[in-house]
């Protein structure tokens, strides 16, 4: 009766267990390369102030539209600013917006979703609000929000977050809806646990795995939306270089200076490709339904 | 009790399995899943494969069908011979041809085995289209004919029905029709009645027997229920851990088992003889349920609907230290009553008094202080513990909610582990490291940790193997005797109810049809429905634990394990 496996699991094991590969699963070369490229981009963006040769904002009327050379690695823009310095520094803000928007929308969506999933009465009202938010195109909503709050870093993050929140809410709600029928949740009710305790301690952990996956997608689309907003002139003000507004400024010089669009565009696409690849991999590993079935 | 005792030695042999070994793919050094299985089945014979979960019954059937999951299991030795055809060496195309034509299989859960978006008639016809050259009209005629044979009512209508429009029993009949339409030589039935109510189970067992006689099919019947075995088997193989420990004709196995394991398995089987009732204490009832009513749905803005009355006019009381059982088939409302009493759902009418307080209409927050008086143990031990929590955390949750300091709660949790016969050091482990029976013990410990006055057991032993079931029933008995807890025991299994209950309430379609002392209700049932339930209980004339027939009508005393 007392034959129990002797391996002792600590909290650490559970945490790592959440990310551990299921038996037999392998991560292929694709996701590994994606992870390495992403780490390289993030590190070079983070450390940019330490190694870029010029102040990304310093204009130099003597050196406008220079071709790539030893002095200016990728050449200069119409105001004589070093493109290399601007692109590398611009990555910091773009990534910050991506991660910030993902974190905020996941956090807000998680709270609203938990409440909507667990309380029948709140559910109807919350979900109708979310439905109406989803009915408005994300870009339009974001432009409207930026127009309302002014083009600061914070307001751009808010503008990108608001359209993403309903997606997170739906996800969390669906997980909670199925998890709250589990007998262990009913047992917790019978044991007299309070509603916040049940929500946070029993139900929330179930939502973490899908949220991690959703978070990566939001991160990628936030970087993209920021670029679009900047491109449309509704993004962060041009004093702070981002990939998006470098490209926007380069638009009119595209014929003489394609590098202005090419380099930030390349980094942007690489970054989004890598994040999405990693998100797909995480989904495959965390979602048992996606596991391959042999016929 | 009459067993099947036909002489089949002159019939041709249909299935011959010799020294069958199945192992994990790519891991030759791992312990084999099946280790040297021998099985012989002759035409017209029913061979039962019994054993507890994990003993390899289903793997055996999958090996015969050639359906072992690739990349996971593979045949590593031995032969499976179906009338001279060697299955282990067959190609995919050969196996596909063999299935349905020569071997067919029916599964436990007919809902998942049928395609929900195709009409059932078409699904039977598909088997004919795949394997024969019959014209459309001939195929339809043959389909209707086999549907008649499995006693489906109004076959023209059911032919057009979708699986969800049929009852569980009708779905299983469709499965049987589909399996037998090509008149196979061997029918494999993998727990075909486990998901069905007892009265439906009896009908399906009779149907399989009738079809077998009509077509002379050999049947390999897999089950964990000794009662079912006693009803239908010619010969039995008892499996344990991938081996066959004993093989014998049914009468021989039930009267004089040779192996200890078989003996242990049989001793654990409950029988229908009611336990002696406990003394009736003079105290006031712990639980007093009066005219309880629960209606689902109803109301509606534009078109008021009647709603589904899942329970109505349910009245009973339980005194300290006694056990009241609610029995009935699925949909009878017995779980609804349990959930109303636990206030997991809010009853629409009536009163529930627990320890003197009326709780059926208290608000959530007003109710919380009363929660500690009543606790529940659920059916599925794999889902009733939070998989991310250690056992210690689960056991401490309740006491801490009611203000017990953490250290004290931990000390109490350790005591409880010993009470339920688990080692103290298992407190730091997670539910997945325990077996089903052990988890159910933990769930019981968690409920007992609250020192409740009333313990509700909602099918608490239904998902467990019989030997584990007997141990858990003993544990419940022990806990009850030690703390004087009153118990409400919900079950569909009359044999379990007989083992543990002092009083029984029989429910049908939301209504109480009969209630009274267990001895009275189970041995002198007054209501038609109770009688049909008792008559449908498989193996009810046999006292498995004592290897003999139950004398006459079920006795009033004795026979507690």
TrEMBL record, chain A:
It holds the Pfam family BPD_transp_1. Signal peptide: none annotated. GO terms for cellular component: plasma membrane. Keywords: Cell membrane, Membrane, Transmembrane, Transmembrane helix, Transport. It comes from the Bacteria. It is found in: Cell membrane. Residues 91-279 form the ABC transmembrane type-1 domain. InterPro entries: BP-dependent_transpt_permease (IPR050366), MetI-like (IPR000515), MetI-like_sf (IPR035906). Belongs to the binding-protein-dependent transport system permease family. This is Peptide ABC transporter permease. It comes from Roseivivax isoporae LMG 25204.
UniProtKB/TrEMBL annotation, chain B:
It is found in: Cell inner membrane. CDD domains: ABC_NikE_OppD_transporters. SMART domains: AAA. GO terms for biological process: peptide transport; transmembrane transport. One of its GO terms (molecular function) is ATP hydrolysis activity. Pfam families: ABC_tran (PF00005), oligo_HPY (PF08352). GO terms for cellular component: plasma membrane. InterPro entries: AAA+_ATPase (IPR003593), ABC_Ni/Peptide_Import (IPR050388), ABC_transporter-like_ATP-bd (IPR003439), ABC_transporter-like_CS (IPR017871), Oligopep_ABC_C (IPR013563), P-loop_NTPase (IPR027417). It is a peripheral membrane protein. Keywords: ATP-binding, Cell membrane, Membrane, Nucleotide-binding, Transport. Its main location: membrane. Residues 15-266, 284-534 form the ABC transporter domain. Belongs to the ABC transporter superfamily. This is ABC transporter.
């Amino acid at each position: 009766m007392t034959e129990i496996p002797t391996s002792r699991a600590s909290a650490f094991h559970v945490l790592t267990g959440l990310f551990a590969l299921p038996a037999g699963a392998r991560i292929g070369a694709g996701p590994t390369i994606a992870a390495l490229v992403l780490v390289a981009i993030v590190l070079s963006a983070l450390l940019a102030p330490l190694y870029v040769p010029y102040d990304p904002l310093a204009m130099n009327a003597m050196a406008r539209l220079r071709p790539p050379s030893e002095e200016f690695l990728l050449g200069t823009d119409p105001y004589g600013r070093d493109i290399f310095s601007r692109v590398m520094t611009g990555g910091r803000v773009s990534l910050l917006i991506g991660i910030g928007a993902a974190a905020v929308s996941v956090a807000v969506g998680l709270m609203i979703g938990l409440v909507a999933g667990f309380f029948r009465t709140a559910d109807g009202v919350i979900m109708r609000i979310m439905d109406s938010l989803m009915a408005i195109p994300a870009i339009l909503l974001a432009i409207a929000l930026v127009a309302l709050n002014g083009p600061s870093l914070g307001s751009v993050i808010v503008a990108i977050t608001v359209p993403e929140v309903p997606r997170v809410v739906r996800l969390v709600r669906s997980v909670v809806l199925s998890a709250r029928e589990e007998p262990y949740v009913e047992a917790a009710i019978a044991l007299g646990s309070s509603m916040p305790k049940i929500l946070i301690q029993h139900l929330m952990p179930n939502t973490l795995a899908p949220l991690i996956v959703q978070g990566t997608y939001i991160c990628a689309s936030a970087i993209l939306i920021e670029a679009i907003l900047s491109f449309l002139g509704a993004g962060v003000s041009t004093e702070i270089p981002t990939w998006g507004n470098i490209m926007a400024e380069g638009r009119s010089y595209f014929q003489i200076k394609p590098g202005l669009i090419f380099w930030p565009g390349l980094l942007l696409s690489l970054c989004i490709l890598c994040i999405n690849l990693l998100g797909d991999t995480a989904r495959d590993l965390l979602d048992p339904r996606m596991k391959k079935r042999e016929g | 009790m009459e067993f099947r005792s036909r002489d089949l030695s002159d019939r041709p042999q249909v299935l011959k399995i010799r020294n069958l070994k199945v192992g994990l793919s790519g891991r030759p050094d791992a312990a084999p899943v099946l280790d040297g299985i021998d099985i012989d089945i002759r035409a017209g014979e029913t061979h039962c494969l019994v054993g507890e979960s994990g003993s390899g019954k289903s793997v055996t059937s999958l090996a015969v069908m050639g359906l072992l999951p690739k990349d996971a299991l593979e045949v590593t030795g031995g032969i499976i011979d179906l009338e001279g055809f060697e299955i282990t060496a067959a190609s995919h195309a050969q196996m596909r041809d063999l299935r349905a034509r020569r071997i067919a299989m029916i599964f436990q859960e007919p809902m998942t085995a049928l395609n929900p978006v195709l009409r059932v008639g078409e699904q039977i016809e598909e088997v004919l289209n795949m394997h024969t050259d019959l014209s459309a009209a001939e195929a339809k005629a043959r389909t209707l004919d086999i549907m008649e044979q499995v006693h489906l009512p109004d076959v023209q209508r059911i032919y057009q029905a979708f699986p969800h429009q049929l009852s569980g029993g009708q779905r299983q009949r469709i499965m049987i029709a589909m399996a037998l339409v090509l008149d196979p030589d061997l029918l494999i039935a993998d727990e075909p009645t486990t998901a069905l109510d007892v009265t439906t189970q009896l009908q399906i067992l009779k149907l399989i027997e009738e079809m077998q006689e009509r077509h002379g099919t050999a049947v390999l019947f897999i089950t964990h229920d000794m009662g079912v075995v006693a009803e239908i088997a010619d010969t039995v193989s008892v499996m344990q851990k991938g081996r066959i420990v004993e093989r014998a004709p049914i009468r021989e196995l039930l009267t004089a088992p040779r192996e200890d394991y078989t003996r242990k398995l049989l001793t654990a089987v409950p029988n229908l003889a009611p336990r002696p009732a406990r003394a009736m204490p003079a105290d006031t009832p712990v639980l007093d349920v009066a005219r309880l009513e629960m209606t689902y749905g109803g109301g509606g803005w534009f078109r008021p609907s009647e709603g589904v009355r899942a329970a109505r006019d349910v009245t009973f009381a339980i005194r300290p230290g006694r056990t009241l059982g609610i029995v009935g088939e699925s949909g009878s409302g017995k779980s609804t009553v349990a959930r109303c009493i636990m206030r997991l759902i809010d009853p629409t009418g009536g009163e529930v008094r627990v320890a003197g307080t009326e709780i059926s209409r208290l608000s959530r927050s007003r109710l919380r202080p009363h929660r500690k008086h009543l606790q529940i143990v659920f059916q599925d031990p794999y889902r009733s513990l939070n998989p991310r929590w250690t056992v210690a955390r689960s056991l401490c949750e309740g006491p801490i909610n009611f203000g017990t300091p953490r250290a004290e709660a931990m000390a109490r949790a350790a005591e409880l582990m010993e009470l339920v016969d688990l080692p103290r050091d298992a407190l730091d482990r997670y539910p997945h490291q325990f077996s089903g029976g052990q988890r159910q013990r933990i769930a019981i410990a968690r409920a007992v940790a609250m020192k409740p006055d009333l313990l509700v057991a909602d099918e608490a032993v239904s998902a467990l193997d019989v030997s584990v079931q007997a141990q858990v029933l003993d544990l419940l008995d022990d806990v009850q005797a030690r703390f004087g807890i009153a118990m409400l025991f919900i079950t569909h299994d009359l044999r379990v109810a007989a083992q543990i209950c002092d009083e029984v309430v029989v429910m049908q379609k939301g209504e109480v049809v009969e209630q009274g002392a267990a001895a009275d209700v189970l041995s002198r049932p007054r209501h038609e429905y109770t009688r049909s339930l008792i008559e449908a209980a498989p193996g009810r004339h046999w006292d498995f634990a004592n290897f003999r027939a139950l004398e006459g009508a079920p006795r009033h005393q004795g026979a507690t394990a």
